């Protein structure tokens, strides 16, 4: 199959990137397409393949000279039903091949059915068993004073409330800069966190980046961030102790999401001297501070 150039639209946070001129082959990365498609699209695609296969094999049976027994009028719909029984390996028994031609087509269809069901079973299992991190990120990063220093903060929480062992967080800034040659380039730098590891993430975690003279965001105002088209990316990974698999989560922010002079509303409340209440209804809320 010849490769064709096409336009692809990619969303990166709030940005929409149009990739043009790539020469892509649809079948070259079909496994990735099956894994990344939504469940409705995946099921619709599987149903379409099933219908196409049965339509083709039903037509091949119909071309033969009475290749299947117990079909009175040799209508195409009867051969289609027989194809469905054969491809799905149901085999009710009332219809069966009775000629060499019928046996040959049925043999090919049985192999196709076994192969396609094996592939489908593997894809469904891979989609269900794929580790997913149910991490909730605050809608807005905030910049406020922490420990007497201006600090960028991002809050996140583990929605499952299971333990994520050895959780590691990395915070990146993306910004437009002008190179020594006078070219505008998009540069990314990692922002140092006060603590970038969590031994057992089960509830909430707030990431802190001090805006000192070592920070690429040092002394940058909202207007400065807008001029540099600043973006933030948070990447969290760790071991899901229940599934015994490494999980990853990512969240991107635009400079318009950053709230200056704000801090997160406290969502922890201790009562009865032994119990702690977490109010996730206030998880995204901020206040002046």
UniProtKB/TrEMBL annotation:
It is a multi-pass membrane protein. Gene3D superfamilies: 1.10.287.70, G protein-activated inward rectifier potassium channel 1. GO terms for molecular function: inward rectifier potassium channel activity. It is found in: Membrane. Keywords: Ion channel, Ion transport, Membrane, Potassium, Potassium transport, Transmembrane, Transmembrane helix, Transport, Voltage-gated channel. Its main location: membrane. Residues 136-287 form the Inward rectifier potassium channel C-terminal domain. Residues 50-128 form the Potassium channel domain. It holds the Pfam family IRK_C. GO terms for biological process: potassium ion import across plasma membrane; regulation of monoatomic ion transmembrane transport. The chain crosses the membrane at residues 41-63, 104-126. GO terms for cellular component: monoatomic ion channel complex; plasma membrane. Coiled coil: none annotated. This is Inward rectifier potassium channel. It comes from Bradyrhizobium erythrophlei.
């Amino acid at each position: 199959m010849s490769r064709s150039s096409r336009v692809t639209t990619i969303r990166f946070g709030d940005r929409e990137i149009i990739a043009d001129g790539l020469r892509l082959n649809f079948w070259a990365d079909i496994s990735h397409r099956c894994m990344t498609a939504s469940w409705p699209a995946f099921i619709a695609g599987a149903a379409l393949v099933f219908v196409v296969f049965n339509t083709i094999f039903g037509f091949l049976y119909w071309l033969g000279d009475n290749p299947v027994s117990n079909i009175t009028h040799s209508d195409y719909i009867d051969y289609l039903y027989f194809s469905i029984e054969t491809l799905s390996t149901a085999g009710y028994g009332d219809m069966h091949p009775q000629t060499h031609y019928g046996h040959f087509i049925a043999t090919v269809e049985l192999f196709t059915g076994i192969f396609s069901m094996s592939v489908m079973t593997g894809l469904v299992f891979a989609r269900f068993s794929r580790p997913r991190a149910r991490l909730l990120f605050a809608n807005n990063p905030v910049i406020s004073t922490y420990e007497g220093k201006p600090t960028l903060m991002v809050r996140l929480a583990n929605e499952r409330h299971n333990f994520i062992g050895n959780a590691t967080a990395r915070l990146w800034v993306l910004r437009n800069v002008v190179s020594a040659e006078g070219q505008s380039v998009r540069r990314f730098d990692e922002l140092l966190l006060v603590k970038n590891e969590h031994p057992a993430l089960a509830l909430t975690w707030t990431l802190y980046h001090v805006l000192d003279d070592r920070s690429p965001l040092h002394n940058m105002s909202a207007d400065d961030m807008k001029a540099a088209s600043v973006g933030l990316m948070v990447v969290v990974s760790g071991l899901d102790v229940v599934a015994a698999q490494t999980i990853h989560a990512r969240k991107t922010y635009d400079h318009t999401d950053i709230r200056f002079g704000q801090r997160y509303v406290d969502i922890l409340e201790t009562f009865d001297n032994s119990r702690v209440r977490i109010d996730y209804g206030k998880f995204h809320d901020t206040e002046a501070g």
